[in-house]
Design brief:
The structure holds two protein chains of two kinds.
Chain A: H1 6-29, H2 37-48, H3 57-91, H4 104-118, H5 125-144, E1 146-147, E2 150-151, H6 153-178, H7 183-190, H8 200-219, H9 221-227, H10 231-236, H11 241-263, H12 269-281, H13 285-309, H14 318-338
Antiparallel strand pairs in A: 1-2
Helix pairs in contact in A: 1-3, 1-13, 3-8, 3-11, 3-12, 3-13, 4-5, 4-6, 4-11, 5-6, 5-11, 6-7, 8-11, 12-13, 13-14
Chain B: H1 3-10, E1 26-35, E2 45-54, E3 59-63, H2 70-78, E4 85-90, E5 93-94, H3 100-106, E6 107-110, H4 122-127, H5 142-154, H6 170-183, E7 188-192, H7 200-217, E8 220-225, H8 228-234, E9 237-242, E10 245-250, H9 252-255, H10 258-265, E11 269-273, E12 279-283, H11 286-291
Parallel strand pairs in B: 3-8, 3-9, 6-7, 7-8
Antiparallel strand pairs in B: 1-2, 1-4, 4-5, 9-10, 11-12
Helix pairs in contact in B: 5-6
Classes of the chains: A mainly alpha, B alpha/beta.
């Protein structure tokens, strides 16, 4: 018996935070303009103590005005999608659940595009539309996946994948007819891309929303452990199942909505990251949630760095990278689960 | 202060009557239930008024064929559904009105095994039984670990603590699930067809253990089963159900009457009383009957 202790939790998080920091430095360094690591670390230190003015302006612009915001956005998106994935996996008792596979990301993308069409010019319109889209999709998929009162794994996944392709078709229709063949925008919504910068205000909303939602999900993490053993069992062990499901449902939809409104529908992160974390750290949600947040951030930062640098000077959408890695592994997990 | 002393004080020294009768722990009083799909429609299933009482250390078998209302009665007792009429009380409190956490501290339910999504170590699984006692994130303290270990010891499964649930055999798994129920330190343990996937050796072992644990830890145990033989051998009290009606409540010897059981289970049976005063049930093949 080796139950999770607070000490192990904190050490793991500290280690992952350091790893994330290292990845950020690497990501800042790599790119079309080469910069040495020592310089970077020194400069990051200067920024930290508020003496950024001493840096040469051209270089500062490339590294800290272009690369750094994109990396920070990647961190937020990666953490949201991974925690959303881990949450959906518990909520639906399905190890293959993920915001993208379940169609929730596409639903969020469609929701924000519709919201943009209905009420353009209103600042919060994309995230709100995305939230409604995400919430409606997961509710729809949940009811599609129910058979005789039981959640059927295959029907659930199939329902999600069908929803995703249906929503993608509508998105493509709307983007081509209304926006006049905006290919870049289409890639953004359908594949997921971090190259479109987000306004400072949105970045703040995103950060606050992320912490609130992850915090709320984390407060139910002990309940999620029991929910995974079955709803009936959880009730008999003293879990307020209705409340937990509501919290997780709302917060996971919110996380997906935030990620999608900032970066479009990036796939498979919410599936792969919690899986890898489970292999390394075990499946206790009290550790899984924070570890997934860190590892998700690391995964997206690395994937985006790769997407920026693999065929210079062109950039790939980060969603292409995650799908290339994610789809085969998804198939592998599905086959293994079927046996 | 012991119960007789309390009674003596209350009754002013006249403590001769009924002192040795322990207090009723579980009181099911005219409890009924109906499943309805909508307000207007006819109920899809009803459980008629059922009454029985159980004391500590007692094993009650809820017996009946499929679709007789056994599981519904179990849900009523566990408090997850509230009776349509009547009452279900555990130590004087209605089980359906207890909040979910308090209920889990007093009632443990062992279901037929459910699929495991992620493999957990048996030890950690048993530790889940401490959940209703923990604070917000339920980090286990030394006491919890000790209780979980002790629970595993009581079911003879200490050696399984470091194995994952998926690796265990049916009987081993059932023991670990029972250990989790013990870790809840309940007063009432409910089991839903616990012997369903077990071979006969493991069935007898489980019920022997339940009887012993009920004695040692003062549990009240209610077992839902359709196994006539096991109920006869291990139950102190039998509640016989058929199609949502409670037909008989009493000791196995009183309930096990040939005609009654034949009619309820729709099979030709022989009932004889064994040396310990417990009935024995034998199945008789229909073929033999036709020839006579």
């Amino acid at each position: 018996m080796r139950p999770l202790t607070v000490r192990r939790l904190l050490w793991t998080c500290a280690g992952l935070a350091l790893l994330l920091l290292a990845c950020v430095v690497v990501a800042l360094k790599l790119g079309a303009v080469p910069i040495s690591v020592t310089e970077l670390v020194l400069d990051l230190g200067r920024i930290a103590i508020g003496r950024a003015d001493e840096l040469p302006s051209e270089y500062r612009m490339i590294v800290f005005d272009l690369r750094l915001p994109r990396i920070l956005l990647g961190i937020l998106v990666g953490a949201s999608l991974s925690v959303a994935g881990a949450s959906f996996q518990a909520l639906l008792r399905n190890p293959l659940a993920d915001p993208y596979v379940l169609g929730v990301s596409s639903g969020a993308a469609l929701g924000s595009i519709l919201a943009l069409i209905i009420a353009p010019g209103f600042a919060l319109v994309t995230p709100i539309g995305a939230f409604i889209g995400a919430g409606a999709t997961i509710a729809g998929v949940y009811f599609l996946g129910r058979r005789e009162g039981q959640l059927d794994s295959t029907t659930l996944l199939l329902g999600g994948i069908i929803c995703a392709s249906f929503f993608s078709a509508i998105i493509m229709f709307l983007m081509t007819t209304l926006a006049g063949r905006d290919l870049r925008g289409m890639v953004f919504w359908l594949m997921g891309d971090l190259s479109t910068p987000v306004s400072a205000g949105m970045q703040w909303i995103f950060t606050v929303g992320l912490f609130v939602a992850i915090g709320a999900i984390y407060s139910t993490s002990a309940d999620l452990n029991l929910l995974l053993t079955g709803e009936r069992e959880a009730i008999h062990l003293g879990v307020d199942v209705t409340r937990v499901k509501l919290v997780v449902y709302v917060c996971a939809s919110l996380l997906t909505a935030l990620a999608v409104s900032a970066s479009g529908a990036i796939g498979y992160v919410g599936l792969l990251v919690p899986h890898a974390v489970r292999l390394i750290f075990g499946s206790d949600y009290r550790l899984l949630i924070p570890a997934s947040a860190f590892c998700g951030a690391i995964a997206i930062v690395l994937a985006d760095t790769l997407a920026r640098t693999i065929v210079p000077p062109t950039e790939l959408p980060v969603g292409a990278m995650t799908a290339m890695a994610g789809a085969p592994i998804f198939i592998y997990l599905l086959r293994r689960g079927l046996r | 202060m012991s119960a007789p002393e309390t009674f003596a004080r209350m009754a002013g020294g006249r403590a001769e009557r009924t002192i040795h009768q322990p207090a009723v722990r579980l009181n099911v009083e005219q409890a009924s239930y109906a499943y309805v799909s909508s307000e207007q429609s006819v109920p899809t299933f009803t459980l008629g008024a059922t009454s029985f009482q159980a004391h500590e250390r007692e094993i009650v078998a809820i017996l009946g064929p499929n679709a007789s209302g056994k599981s519904t009665l179990l849900r009523l007792i566990s408090g997850t559904i509230a009776p349509l009429s009547g009452r279900v009380e555990l130590e004087g409190q209605e089980t359906s009105r207890l909040d979910v956490r308090t209920r889990a501290q007093r009632i443990a339910v062992v279901h037929q095994e459910s699929p495991v999504v992620y493999p957990a170590l048996a030890g950690d699984f048993v530790l889940q039984g401490r959940y209703p006692y923990g604070r917000a994130l339920r980090f286990a303290n030394q006491e919890d670990i000790e209780i979980a270990r002790n629970a595993l010891r009581q079911v003879g499964a200490e050696h399984l603590a470091k194995r994952t649930i998926g690796e265990l055999s049916g009987g081993e798994k059932q023991r670990v699930i029972l250990a989790r129920a013990l870790a809840q330190q309940p007063r009432l343990i409910l089991l839903d067809e616990p012997t369903l996937h077990l071979d006969i050796g493991a069935q007898v072992e489980l019920l022997e253990r339940l009887r012993q644990l009920a004695q040692e830890n003062h549990y009240t145990v209610a077992v839902v089963t359709h196994e006539l033989g096991l109920a006869a051998e291990f139950a102190d009290q039998v509640v016989l159900l058929q199609r949502g009606r409670c037909l008989r409540v009493g000791s196995p010897a009183a309930v096990y009457q040939k005609e009654l059981l034949e009619q309820v289970f729709e099979a030709p049976l022989d009932v004889e009383i064994g040396p310990a005063g417990r009935p024995r049930v034998n199945l008789r093949a229909r073929r033999g009957e036709e020839t006579t």
